[in-house]
């Protein structure tokens, strides 16, 4: 047990998981308008906990129709085996390089799933054109419209992830002290023109 431990129950139905970027082992569970803080021994153990909790939350989610499959079951059925394995297998290397590689892989997986959504949308549109019942055709058209909104939201999410990746890389350069090192070199008289521009923009 960790220092400051408290015993109790946390409702996982509709819960939202959060990760503290400043502390390797910390994560949160927000449910019923309350946030609970947890601490693992390290980032690798935290990753195991977070993935297990995500799986539990998804498996026990309430769906409006009984025939609707659970998300994990859907992914296991429709996602290529290598992608599913790479998505859920444990990874102990939590360095910046490994994390960025993992992040790139997730974006690539999202692109593949997006292509699947687009293909299904095109199939749905082609099937709607063959429907003769006008009332049914209108209802299916509304479904197709909402489906296309979903596809657009996924596209936007992928674009935002790409922007986030660039910002993270820029932040990592600053965090590792590359900018201060350049500043010290410039003060020694190297590339004085760039040094003046740097101070002018400061």
Automatic annotation (TrEMBL):
Superkingdom, taxonomy of origin: Eukaryota
Positions of transmembrane segments: none
InterPro entries the UniProt entry points to: PH-like_dom_sf, PH_domain
Source species: Polyplax serrata
Residues annotated as domain PH: 1-58
Protein name: PH domain-containing protein
Lineage, opening ranks: Eukaryota, Metazoa, Ecdysozoa, Arthropoda, Hexapoda
């Amino acid at each position: 047990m960790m220092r400051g431990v408290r015993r109790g129950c946390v409702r996982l139905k509709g819960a939202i998981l959060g990760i503290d970027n400043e502390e390797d082992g910390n994560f949160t569970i927000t449910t019923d308008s309350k946030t609970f803080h947890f601490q693992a021994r390290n980032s690798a153990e935290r990753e195991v906990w977070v993935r297990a909790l995500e799986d539990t939350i998804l498996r026990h989610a309430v769906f409006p129709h009984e025939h609707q499959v659970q998300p994990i079951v859907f992914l296991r059925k429709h996602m290529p085996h290598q992608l599913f394995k790479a998505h859920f297998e444990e990874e102990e290397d939590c360095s910046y390089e490994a994390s960025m590689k993992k992040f790139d892989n997730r974006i690539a997986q999202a692109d593949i799933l997006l292509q699947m959504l687009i293909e299904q949308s095109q199939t749905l549109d082609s099937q709607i054109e063959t429907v003769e019942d006008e009332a049914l055709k209108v209802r299916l058209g509304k479904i197709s419209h909402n489906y296309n909104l979903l596809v657009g939201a996924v596209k936007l999410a992928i674009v935002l992830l790409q922007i986030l990746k660039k910002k993270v890389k820029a932040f990592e350069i600053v965090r590792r002290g590359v900018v201060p090192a350049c500043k010290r070199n410039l003060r020694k008289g190297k590339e004085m023109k760039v040094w003046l521009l740097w101070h002018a923009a400061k």
